Amino acid sequence: MTIKQRNKGYEASLSKDGERFRRTFSTYEEAEQWEAKIRLALIEGRDPNNLTVRGGTWSLNEAVSATFKAIWAGSKSEETSYKNSNAAISFFGKHHSLIAITTVELQEWVQHLREIGNSNATINRKLAALSRVLTYAHQCNRLSSVPHIPRQREAVSRLRWATYQEEQIMLDLCDSWSIPAIKDLLIILLDTGMRVGEVLKLTAQDAFADRVVIVDPKNGKTHAVPLTSRASEIISKRLLEAPKGALFPITYTSAHWHFKKITEHMGLDDVSIHTLRHTFASRLVQKGVSLQVVSKLLNHSTLTMTMRYAHLAPMNYTDAISVLESGNVGGN
To answer: What's the pTM value of the predicted model, to 2 decimals?
Structure first.
């Protein structure tokens, strides 16, 4: 049996005849107690998977709070994950028992989300957040099993990025509406490809003349983001205006609200503030920057995530194959 610290909890694991049993607990003592119960069940020939849930199950609100503290707090997806999981609380109720959430109830929630206008992609994001909550409760031995999650089929959509003309209109609207902080934010997003949450967490100690540094709170790893000249000017100005604390004193909700108002005024219904990250990547690839470099700049964990931009490269696959023609003798 092995007990290892995982995030803010302790993971206990035990293998027997090729079958592995694993759970995560908030304390080391709970992990030890669970290990003893599993070992005793195996000795007595009982199915460890049918052990009584320790201390009873959680309510949905308790499970969301526990998942947030253990997994989402300080992560890149902190705000969106918490927001999506709270959509489940709004439908089921915060005191709803986890064991009462069945696949049938999940289908009813999906139907409700569809009726209020959520797309399949949005529904899947909310289902994914709830799935993470249920899985964590299962790992913590607060739920005996996780119900089937009815994921929805998503339509393949065209990759959207902002044109230079659209960008200029956005920035001009910020000037006419006297929202300079939002204008600065949009430029930083366009010129760095950073996520909104990453920019809003920047402080003076993260900023340098030619770059800003993002620190992953989970593993302490850093990612340096180079700055264009106009992005550098904005960061320098922000350092003077906010020498302490956040460089962009804007809430996540406010940033999205202002961007939505701007795009609604422009008559754009197929963009979100995340489109600016796509714009950054798309422009680089179209100008011949390699996918490997773009992947590093976006801080993608794998190159696969960056491959969605491959078709934008000035030399496409047909052009690449054509270089072999010059070496063929007689065209054979």
So the answer is: 0.59
DSSP string, 132-147: HHHHHHHHTTS-S-PP
What the block records as the tokens of 318 is: 């047909």
| Highest mean pLDDT, choosing among 142-151, 166-175, 217-226 | 166-175
329: which DSSP letter?
Answer: G
The whole-number pLDDT of residue 276 equals: 95
Judge contact between 139 and 73, C-beta under 8 A: no
Q: Which of 11-25, 48-62, 92-106, 125-139 has the lowest mean pLDDT?
A: 48-62
CA distance 250 to 18: 52
Report if residue 154 sits inside a domain: no
Alpha-carbon span 42 to 51, nearest angstrom: 11
> Quick one: average pLDDT of 37-46?
74
Q: CA nearest 196: which of 119, 153, 265, 252? A: 252
Domain that holds residue 21: 2-50
Region of 24 on the Ramachandran plot (φ > 0 left; ψ -120 to 50 alpha; else beta): beta
> Do residues 308 and 168 share a domain?
yes
